[in-house]
Amino acid sequence: DQQVKQNSPSLSVQEGRISILNCDYTNSMFDYFLWYKKYPAEGPTFLISISSIKDKNEDGRFTVFLNKSAKHLSLHIVPSQPGDSAVYFCAASYTGTASKLTFGTGTRLQVTL
Amino acid sequence: DSGVTQTPKHLITATGQRVTLRCSPRSGDLSVYWYQQSLDQGLQFLIQYYNGEERAKGNILERFSAQQFPDLHSELNLSSLELGDSALYFCASSVLSSGNTIYFGEGSWLTVV
Question: What integer pLDDT is reported at residue A75 of this predicted model?
Fold first, then answer.
């Protein structure tokens, strides 16, 4: 049962344009959401997070939006840069007694010149 | 550099053998997580320890075991290795046991031949 889903395995965006990566979840108990970026043969790097009490969190070029009613979150990257080319994972957790991050399957973003 | 250290970075071993992967968490982090990433797969949660105690268990095979020591470093033991165990094994750490950001190490590449 895939509780966190990233339905787009890949996305190609031109440099300077906006990249929008989407993520859906099914577990309504999730209350903390994160995005990680991963280059080949490296560990995932934390990008940005959002608590369920918010609907938007911004950090530089990265903004995460959360729509709790739709159980959907998205990551916007503006403007996209070639160095943003990587695999992006969304993850979710809940402040339960034994929670851990549940990851989506990832979206490979390619930013072209 | 996330501050999470994993050794070895690369390991090649034969089927039926046993290996131990080691992880030192970030300074001050009490929680350690192990994840597995096979080719073209997402990050699969294996197990979590918090301050020396097992806190959550995921899709960890019975042939695999882990522990967290008093100095908070952790080891993942993989035994009776099979070809399908070839994967990238990530350790991550966090301050709390749930509902927070976790930081990943660079991973240990295991190849079973």
Answer: 98
